[in-house]
Amino acid sequence: MPRWTTPTGLGGWLTLLLGVLLAVIGLILTVGGVQLATLGGSWYYLIAGLALIASGVLLILRDVRGAWIYGATFLATLIWAFWEKGLNGWALVPRLVGPLVLMFLVIATLPALRRGAGRLAAGSAAGLAVLTLIFGVVIAQANKAQVDHPVPGARGAYNDPALLKTGADWPAWGGTDSAQRYTPLTQINKDNVGRLERAWTFRTGDLPGERWGAETTPLKVGDTVYLCSARNKLFALDANTGQQKWTYDPQVADDQIPYTAACRGVAYHARANANPAEPCAIKIIEGTLDGRIIAVDARTGRPCPAFGQNGAVSIKVGMGDPYPGMVSITSAPVIVRGVIVTGHQVLDGQKRWNASGVIQGFDVETGELRFAWDMMRPDRNGLPPEGETYTPGTPNMWTTASVDENLGLVYLPMGNSAADYWSSSRRPLEKQYSTSIVALDVTTGKPRWHYQTVHNDVWDFDHGSQATLIDFPTAAGVVPALLVPTKQGDMYVFNRANGQLLHRVEERPVPTTGGTEQGQRSPTQPFSLFATLRKPNLVEADMWGMSPIDQMFCRINFKKANYQGYYTPPSTNHYINYPGYNGGSDWGGVAVDPVRGVIVANYNDMPNYNRLVPRAEANEKGWFPRDDPRYIAQQKQAAERGGSLSKGEGAGDPQIGVPYAIDVNAGWRVKWTGLLCKEPPYGGITAIDMRTGQTLWDRPFGTARKNGPWGIPSMLPLEIGTPNNGGAVVTASGLIFIAAATDDLIRAIDIETGKTVWSDVLPAGGQANPMIYEQNGREYLVIMAGGHHFMETPEGDYVIAYALPEGRA
C-alpha cells in the first residue's frame, strides 16, 4: 500500500485535486446510489460511486492504480450507457460527457503517478482516440434531425370551399372559419424560400414586463393588416409597407393581466350588402383582458357607437363583479350568423367557486346579449335574475372556438373548473361537459352535441386547441368533419353535424388507486385509435440531467414518486403527470393541407412533477388567491423589494374551496440547474395522413441554441426538441412555416420530408401562430415576436413580415 507523501510540482498538486474531486463525486454517487438501489432502481450509481472513491484515494496517493480503476469504470460506464440507450445521442450526454472529461484529466495526470505510469500512458493514447471517436458518433447522433419514417405526403382531393377565403387575405385567426391554417399561395416555394428577407417590421410599443406573452396572429383583409398587442391595443397597418394607419387603445389596466398579458387575435366582420364607407359597416372585434368585447370601425379605428356603450360590452355582467385578473379574454372571438361568440379565461388554481365559465353570444351590430349558455342552468338563456349570478365555478372555454356558418354551430373546446386537480365537489353537469368538445347552436344557445375526451379530469387536460373543420374521407364518401387535437395527444374526428365519431375509440382501463379521492377516478378513459402524439410511459432510464449526479437525483425522484403511467391519480406525495398540462397540442392548434391530405401538428412532450398540498401547509407557505388581503400584502412587499412572489411566499396555486392546494413543477425541472428531468426531446412536430391517421414523419422540433444549465444559452445548433407554444401555417407549395420553439427561430419545413429548409433568428420569442397573405402580387409571411415569460424567451413587441426580394418573386 503506497503511503502519503507531500505532492511536488504543479502536476502533483493537480493530481491531488483531481483525486479529491473524484472521491467527492464518488461519495455523492454512493450515497445517492444506495437510496436509488433501495428504491428498486439502477445499481450503476452505487457501483460507480465506490469505484470513484477508490480511484480518487489512489490518485491522492499518486498511485497509478487509481488511473486504472477510473479507466475501467469509464469503460463499464460506456457499456452501461449504450446498453440502456443505444445510439440515442441526447440520452447519452449526461451519462458520458462528464465521465469523458474526467477521463482526459486522469490521463493528463499520468506523468505525476508512480508505478507503471509509462505503460498506462502508452496504451492510453490509442484507447482515448477510440473513445473520442465514439463520443463523436454520440454527438453526431444528437445532431441528427431524427425524422422518423419519412414518406411522401398522402395525395388526395379534400377541397374545402372555405379555403377560397385565404390567399390574398387572412381573414380569421385560423386563416378561415375552418381553422385549417392553410394558404393556396405558391409564390414562396422550396426552391426560393432561402431568399426570404424581412420586408417590413412594426413595433407595437407594448411591453408588459413581468407577465409578457402577446401570442398574437394578425388578420389581413384588403390592403390592411389588423392586430392586437399584449394589452389589447388595436392596430391597422398597410399590408405592403407595415406603416401604421390607425391605433385604438382600450386602456386595459395592468392589474387586469391574468397569468399572461396575451391577445391571440381579433375577428373581422363585414355587414352584408352595406356600403363599405358607412361607419362600422366593417368592424374589428376584440376581447380584452378586463373582460370586454370591443368593436371598432375597421377603416378608422373609432369605436362603433351603436355597439353597446361607446363600442364596448362587458362579459362580466351577471358574474358578480369578479376581482381584477380573475376573468379575461385572451383568445380571438368568433362570429357566426351575426353573433359574436366568446368564452373567457378564469384564472386557474385560485378558487373552486371562482367566476362562471358561461359562454355568451352578442349581436355583432348592437352588442345585445343574444344567448348565455350556463351549463348548470339549461332552462335559462340570458342574464340571471336580479340578485343572482351565472353559476360559479363551472368549466370555461379560454381558447378560440371554430364555426360552421351553414350549420349555425360553434364548436367549443371546453376546460375544467378553476380547481383543476380536485373533483369531489363537481356537480353532475360539470362532470358531463368538462374537457369536452361542445357543438353549440347559435340560434338557440343550447348544445346540439358534445363529446368528452377525459372523464372527470383532474390532470388539467382541458381543451386548448381550436378544432379544425375538414372534409374527411370515409368508405361511404367524404363527410364534413371536425378534427379535435387534445393536450393528452389524442386526435378525434367527428361528423360535425351530429357528433358521430368517424374512427374507433377504445375505453381502456386506467389507474384508479393511490390518489386522494378514492371512488372518484373513472376506471376507464377514452383512447383515440385515429392518431396520437402521445409517447410511451416513462421509465427510470428516461431520466436526464447535466451530469450523472443530477440524472441520479431525477432517477431517485422518479422511483419515489407515485407514477402508474398515463392518468396516474393526483396524490399528496409527489406524482408524475405525463404528459403535463402543456403536453400534446395546445392553443396553437394544428394546420391541415387539404390537397395533400396531411395534418401538421407540433406538440410538447414533458411531464409535470406535482403534489397536492394540504390546506394547512398551503396556508403556512402563504399560498392565497389573488383577491385575498394576505396575497395583496405579499405582492406589495415583493414589489417594494423590486422582485416578484416565489412559490414559498404566495405564488402557489391555492385552490381555495377544496381540501388541497396544488404544487406543479411544470416540465419537471431540477431546481439548481433548471434542466428538465426527462431526456429530450421536449417537443416535436409531425405530419399525419388525414385519410388513415398514420404518421408520415415525426421529428424533434427546436434547437439547443437558447437552452442550457442555469439559463445560460448553449448556442448549440443541435436539434434537441424544445418546449413550444404556437402553431404552424401550411402553403400549397409544400412548406410549413412555424416559430413556437424556445430557440427564437422562425423556420420553413418541407411538408414531404420534415426537413428544415430555411430559418431566421427572431429578435424575441416567436410564441405565436404565423399567417400568410398576398399584396400587390407579393406574398408575405408574418410573425409576432413577443416572447413569453413561461417559455422563458425574450420579451418583444415586433411584428415582422418576410417576402422574396422585390422583382424576384
What is the gist of this entry?
It is built from 9 helices and 40 strands. It is of the alpha+beta class and 809 residues long.
Give a description of the structure.
Keywords: Membrane, Oxidoreductase, Transmembrane, Transmembrane helix. Belongs to the bacterial PQQ dehydrogenase family. With about 800 residues, this protein is an alpha+beta fold. Helices cover about 20% and strands about 25% of the residues. It has a 5-stranded mixed sheet, with no helix packed on it. A hairpin with a 4-residue loop joins β19 (about 435-440) and β20. The longest helix has 30 residues, at about 10-40.
Task: Name the features.
9 helices; 5-stranded mixed beta sheet; alpha+beta; 809 residues; 40 strands
Q: What profile does the largest beta sheet have?
A: 5 strands, mixed
The tally of strands reads: 40
The level of helicity is: 10-25%
Rg over CA atoms, rounded to whole Å, is: 28 Å
**Spatial strand order of the main sheet:** 1-34-35-36-37
Sheet/helix structural class: alpha+beta
**Helical stretch tally:** 9
What average pLDDT do the residues reach? 91
Categorize the overall geometry.
Answer: globular
Question: What's the N-to-C terminus distance?
Answer: 79 Å
DSSP strand content: 15-25%
Which stretches are poorly predicted, pLDDT < 50 over at least 5 residues? 116-143, 145-164
Keywords: Membrane, Oxidoreductase, Transmembrane, Transmembrane helix
Family: Belongs to the bacterial PQQ dehydrogenase family.
GO molecular function: oxidoreductase activity
Pfam families: PQQ
